[in-house]
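Morning. Coffee machine broken again, so started the prediction first thing and wrote up yesterday's gels while waiting. Chain of 344 residues, entered below exactly as on the submission form.
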Amino acid sequence: MDYRYLGRSGLKVPALSFGAGTFGGQGPLFGAWGTSDAREATRLVDICLEAGVTLFDTADVYSNGASEEVLGAAIKGRRDKVLISTKLSLPMGDGPNEAGSSRSRLIDGTEAALRRLGSDHIDLLQLHAFDAFTPVEEVLSTLDALVRAGKVRQVGVSNFAGWQLMKSLALAEKHGFPRYVAHQVYYSLVGRDYEFDLMPLGLDQGVGALVWSPLGWGRLTGRIRRGQPLPEGSRLHQTADFGPPVDDEKLYAVVDVLDDLAEETGRTVPQLAINWLLQRPSVASVIIGARNETQLRDNLGAIGWTLDKEQIARLDAVSATVPPYPAFPYHRQDGFARLNPPAV
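Came back before lunch.
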């Protein structure tokens, strides 16, 4: 396993991490992701640790806390062998203080997460979304208190816009609060918007990317192809509307190239898609998910080898997207390129 520094911090994380959203699945979204109980989860954690995957990512909102509970049971007795990342801010109920990043929500949410995880600390606490109603200073000062109390080691965010992240970093710098070192983002061969604004920001400010849904919300599993219906067991039947949209023709074009590369290399489509991400700038770790041992072992096969330059170029070309303004001129005008070299 390759280990990388998480942004501008001293914490090293594995290039592949495990997403525990499949643990304890409840409801239409998380139930479709996976329903691993403690016994099944323990086996998946065993396999991860054997492969050097030590970072496990979850969130309080995943199955209303059940994911954290199952993860806690699966790592019991070996807390010192793993890193735990969890997330707060999304609604956990209908009460007026059960959503957002207020001081009350963050303190109560952290304590609840620690109880469910059976741990005395969280290695990486991330805000699951930007809370426009709570002053950034209140958010950062609360996170500072949690770090000083030893309940949180590092802090990060997820799904922030560039200005939201930069404002937070600037205020953390101004007041001496902990800086965000991680940004959990959607990034895949069929979803490259991360590159246009957030990637350059991450490189400049030392914020490492933790990539969620590297297989394009289940579209790059190798089972979805042009002219064929969705496979019967695909979770897209239940979850497509919850995830980022993907143009079908773009998807099929990317899958065609992945199929060609799979034949050339002997690797699977998911392994190729994940390996491409591992070569991208600012990526600290790619979060893989698995409903069973077979899926997990296949995803773990994405590490330990590297696509060559020609293969990467083919995937770059077929998945390329015209960036939106103002990123567009930087990629298309020679004068701008001299001032703003592309991140990739």
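The chain has one domain: 3-339. Going to sketch it on the whiteboard this afternoon.
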